[in-house]
Design a protein that fits this description.
single chain, alpha/beta, eight-stranded mixed beta sheet, three-stranded antiparallel beta sheet, 27% helix
C-alpha cells in the first residue's frame, strides 16, 4: 500500500458550536432556530443591510428588464462574451430533446480553464420551463459582474478568486411553451418529453424511490438531466444553487426520505443531510441577504409574529408553506430524484434550491422589483465559497509521499459522519465547512 502525504491548508478554529446538535425527532424549524442563533452570535451571518454597506455602490441601471426567448438569450450571451472575451467563456453543456443548447456563461478572471486555488461555482436556472425569474436574473447578474468589474472592489475580488458558471436555462424547450403572466400554472414546466427534470436524477438509493416508480420507463434519464450530470462531474464544483419559482424560500437537502414500508407511501419527513449545519448556514445566508425572505410579519389571524410571508400576494400562498426563510426539503414535501440531493451524494458540490419568488412567469413590469429583492442575495451566496475566509473551507493538495506526484481521487474527510470529498486535477480539493472543532482531516 502506498503511503500518502496530505499537504493541506488546515483552517480550523474553535467556536460556540463545540459539539454538533444531536438530531433526533426534532422538526427542522427547531434545529434551524438553534443553529441560526449560534451563527448570528459568532457573526457568521451577514444581514441585508450589512451587505449593502459591504458591497458598496454598483451600477445596474443599464439592465433591460425583459424576458429572453431562446434565440434572444443565445444572442445576449454571445454579445456579452464578445464584449468581454477576457472575462468570459461561452459553451454548451449539452442539448435538449429539441436540440436547443444548454448554454453556460463563465464569468471570471480565469474564464477558460480551471486554475489551482480558484474554486468553481455554478447557478442553474429554469429547470422548470415556466419558472423564469432565475433565467433572466442570471443574464442580469452576468452583466452586473462584467460591467462593475473595474469599479467595484467586492465584485472584482469575486471574479479574481472564483470561476462562476451561469446556466440560464436547463429546460429551454419547456420555456418556449410557457406564457408570460402565469402565476401558478404548469404549462411549460416539463421538458419536451413531458418529464419533470427535478424528479429525473438518480435517487439516493432504491429505498428512497416511490415504489410505483421503480423500473418505470417514465424515469428514463432525460437528455437535459444527463447533460447536467456529465457537466457537473467534469468540473470540480464546490458550491451551487438551483433557481426555481413558486414561493420565496431556500430549500436544503435532503429532499428525499425513506418510504414507509408498512403503508407503502411517504409523507413529509424531516430528512437532514450529514452536513445539515453547513446547509442551514448556507441557506440562511441567502435568505438573510434577501430583502424580505427572512422578515417576521404579524399573523392577522393569530396576532403573533411569524416568518414570511412567502408571497406578497396571499392568493399565491400554498397550504403547508413554511413560514420561515429556509426549509429542509423533505419536511416541506418529498422529492425523489431531485438535483440538489444528486449533487450532494455524487459530487463534491454542495447545492441548495432557491425559490426566488411566488410568480412563476412574472410580467415584464415586475422584473425590476423582483431583481432588487434578490440581487444582493445572489451576489452574497457566491461569496459563501470565501465567506469569512479562511474559515469557510479546507483547501489543499494530496501528493504521493514517495514520488511527490499529485493524487487524483484521494478521499478527504473531516469527521466520521459528514460528506467525503475527493481530490481532482493536481490532487487539489475543496471542502466547505462551518467554523467549529473537527478531527484532523484525513486523505486516503
Amino acid at each position: 500500500m502506498i503511503d500518502h502525504l496530505l499537504f493541506a491548508l488546515l483552517l480550523l478554529v474553535s467556536n460556540s458550536l463545540a459539539k454538533p446538535l444531536t438530531l433526533g425527532q426534532e422538526r427542522s424549524t427547531d434545529v434551524e432556530k438553534y443553529l441560526i442563533n449560534q451563527f448570528e452570535n459568532q457573526d457568521d451571518i451577514t444581514t441585508y443591510e450589512q451587505l449593502i454597506a459591504e458591497l458598496g455602490n454598483f451600477n445596474d441601471s443599464f439592465i433591460d428588464f425583459r424576458h429572453y426567448n431562446y434565440r434572444d438569450l443565445e444572442q445576449k450571451l454571445t454579445d456579452l462574451h464578445k464584449a468581454y472575451p477576457h472575462l468570459t467563456d461561452l459553451y454548451s453543456a449539452g442539448q435538449s430533446i429539441q436540440n436547443r443548447e444548454l448554454y453556460v456563461l463563465v464569468v471570471s478572471k480565469y474564464p477558460h480553464a480551471h486554475q489551482k486555488g480558484v474554486p468553481e461555482f455554478k447557478y442553474v436556472a429554469n429547470m422548470h420551463g415556466n419558472e423564469v425569474s432565475g433565467r433572466v436574473f442570471l443574464v442580469y447578474l452576468a452583466e452586473v459582474l462584467l460591467k462593475n468589474y473595474e469599479t467595484n472592489e467586492y465584485i472584482r475580488k469575486m471574479l479574481d478568486t472564483t470561476r462562476i458558471h451561469l446556466m440560464p436555462t436547463m429546460n429551454p424547450d419547456g420555456y418556449e411553451k410557457a406564457i408570460e403572466g402565469d402565476d401558478s400554472g404548469v404549462r411549460g414546466r416539463q421538458n419536451a418529453a413531458g418529464q419533470d427534470l427535478n424528479r429525473n436524477f438518480p435517487p439516493r438509493s432504491i429505498k428512497f424511490r416511490f415504489p410505483e416508480l421503480i423500473n418505470n420507463e417514465n424515469r428514463r434519464t432525460q437528455p437535459e438531466t444527463a447533460a447536467v450530470m456529465s457537466w457537473t462531474k467534469s468540473i470540480p464544483f464546490v458550491l451551487s444553487a438551483n433557481l426555481h419559482g413558486g414561493t420565496a424560500i431556500v430549500n436544503y437537502p435532503f429532499d428525499d426520505a425513506p418510504v414507509d414500508r408498512l403503508r407503502n407511501r411517504r409523507s413529509s419527513s424531516y430528512s437532514p443531510a450529514p452536513d445539515n449545519e453547513l446547509f442551514v448556514r448556507l441557506a440562511y445566508s441567502y435568505a438573510r441577504a434577501h430583502k424580505r425572505m427572512w422578515k417576521p410579519i404579524k399573523d392577522q389571524i393569530h396576532s403573533v409574529l411569524v416568518q414570511g410571508p412567502r408571497c406578497l400576494n396571499p392568493q399565491l400562498e400554498l397550504t403547508g408553506d413554511p413560514q420561515s426563510g429556509i426549509v429542509n426539503g423533505a419536511e416541506w414535501y418529498i422529492v425523489s430524484g431531485g438535483m440538489q440531493d444528486w449533487n450532494y451524494v455524487n459530487t463534491n458540490c454542495m447545492e441548495l434550491t432557491v425559490e426566488i419568488n411566488c410568480v412563476k412567469f412574472p410580467a415584464k413590469s415586475r422584473l425590476k422589483m423582483l431583481w432588487d429583492e434578490n440581487k444582493y442575495a445572489l451576489l452574497h451566496y457566491i461569496m459563501q465559497i470565501h465567506k469569512s475566509y479562511p474559515f469557510s473551507a479546507i483547501h489543499g493538495f494530496v501528493y504521493d509521499a514517495a514520488t511527490r506526484s499529485p493524487i487524483v481521487g484521494a478521499t478527504i474527510g473531516i469527521d466520521t459522519t459528514s460528506k467525503i470529498v475527493t481530490s481532482f486535477e493536481a490532487g487539489e480539493y475543496w471542502r466547505l465547512i462551518n467554523i467549529g472543532n473537527y478531527t484532523r482531516p484525513s486523505a486516503n
